[in-house]
Amino acid sequence: MKIRLDRTICDGFGVCAKHAPGYFSLDDWGYAALIGDGTVAEADRDAVMRALLDCPVHAITEIGDRKFRTAAPPLTDASDPAEHLKTEENEAEWGFTR
Ligand code: SF4
């Protein structure tokens, strides 16, 4: 996991440094700076994600590939919604009455 901090939108709430002090430092006015190059160790992932999600102005973003980004599985006849369209031709199956 890798993160970046946009200091131009940081409003100095300090939430990030509270959750992940090893990754964020605060200057004299409370504005955050990233410690290091933004690479997050797996053991610190939860704390940094908490900082990311709790930042009130969304100044922290995750960059790079995410593990769950995979191609959608191909449609099969069973999962194809077009197979379950209710039409006049199959109304005996779905029970429409006039
Ligand atoms: S939580 Fe967000 S707004 Fe607050 S200091 Fe950190 S980056 Fe800035």
UniProtKB/TrEMBL annotation:
<keyword id="KW-0813">Transport</keyword>
<keyword id="KW-0411">Iron-sulfur</keyword>
<dbReference type="GO" id="GO:0046872">
    <property type="term" value="F:metal ion binding"/>
</dbReference>
<protein>
    <submittedName>
        <fullName>Ferredoxin</fullName>
    </submittedName>
</protein>
<keyword id="KW-0249">Electron transport</keyword>
<keyword id="KW-0003">3Fe-4S</keyword>
<dbReference type="GO" id="GO:0051538">
    <property type="term" value="F:3 iron, 4 sulfur cluster binding"/>
</dbReference>
<feature type="region of interest" description="Disordered">
    <location>
        <begin position="71"/>
        <end position="98"/>
    </location>
</feature>
<dbReference type="InterPro" id="IPR051269">
    <property type="entry name" value="Fe-S_cluster_ET"/>
</dbReference>
<dbReference type="Pfam" id="PF13459">
    <property type="entry name" value="Fer4_15"/>
</dbReference>
<keyword id="KW-0408">Iron</keyword>
<keyword id="KW-0479">Metal-binding</keyword>
